[in-house]
Design goal:
This protein is an all-alpha fold. Helices cover about 45% and strands about 0% of the residues. This is Prenyltransferase.
């Protein structure tokens, strides 16, 4: 896939931020891969891929090497030089690398095994970090990291073969019913969730439907179909309308707030292709 002419300026703009944080490839000298949102390392590689940059491009190859340099022998990724390593960090790094076509790398194979080993009892993934204090809601896993884990796993041989992933899908489908904020980080399904965000950056209706559409366990489920219907109700003339993004992305042509996005619409039609083979 190559970048279409109308998106070249977007790609160049993203590349112009490469050294914003003091080192190359959108990171800091001490390799903080999620610092500087929305122009962090892990976010920018997704933007470039979404805009059509080939994974064999030297820029993405070097970015992949940078991300892999934070990999640990137990399968985790240390995306900050100090402090605890949380599952949400590992799934974000793994997901970026999988999007770059590296899911078969033996290091990521070990990461997949690690994630299956630490899966929480409710089927999701959960960080032992209680920023908002403790309560009944914090007994749950964190929905968005769970969704990102499923995003990474969809590139693997575990897709639609591993019962543990079906359990993760069920956890996320349950959240469609619960709706209220759950998990130590309080992910809910309120007004912000229902706003279509693109590119995929946070927990919202669009990425929720998109990722779940890859999983057979979700495709015929009433809750998934309700979410899909909610997404389709927000479309205009068969196109995805961007309802939310961060101000720093406001001038990018591929994701202008309030306008139809051709690339986002391609992701919607990918959802439909995923559903063609539902059983």
């Amino acid at each position: 896939m190559t970048t279409a002419k109308q998106y070249i300026s977007d790609l160049e703009n993203i590349l112009s931020h490469r050294h914003d944080h003091g080192a190359d490839y959108w990171t800091t000298p001490d390799k903080r891969l999620i610092k500087g949102s929305p122009f962090s390392t892990l976010e920018c590689v997704h933007y470039l891929i979404e805009l059509g940059m080939d994974s064999t491009d030297p820029i993405l190859k070097e970015a992949a090497a940078l991300i892999f340099s934070t990999w640990r022998e137990d399968g985790r990724f240390k995306v900050y030089p100090k402090g605890a390593i949380y599952p949400c960090h590992t799934v974000q790094a793994a997901n970026a690398l999988c999007h770059m076509g590296l899911a078969s790398d033996e290091r990521l194979q070990k990461t997949f095994q690690h994630l299956l080993e630490i899966q929480y009892t409710d089927g999701g993934w959960r960080c032992n970090k209680f920023t908002f204090g403790r309560g009944p809601e914090t007994a749950y896993s964190n929905p968005f990291p769970t969704l990102i884990a499923l995003s990474a796993f969809r590139f693997s041989e575990y897709l639609n073969k591993e019962p543990a992933l079906d359990k993760a899908v069920e956890f996320l489908l349950d959240h469609w019913t619960i709706r209220k904020p759950i998990g130590p980080c309080h992910y809910g399904m309120g007004t912000l969730f229902m706003q279509v965000e693109y590119p995929f950056r946070s927990y919202n209706l669009f990425i929720y439907v998109y990722i779940l559409s890859f999983y057979t366990r979700a495709k015929n489920d009433k809750r998934f179909l309700e979410a899909l219907s909610a997404l389709e109700s927000k479309m205009r003339d068969g196109k995805i309308i961007v309802e939310r993004n961060v101000p720093k992305l406001a001038l990018f042509s591929f994701c202008k707030k309030g306008e139809a996005s051709g690339l986002a619409t391609l992701r919607y039609y990918e959802i439909l292709r995923n559903l063609d083979g539902k059983v």
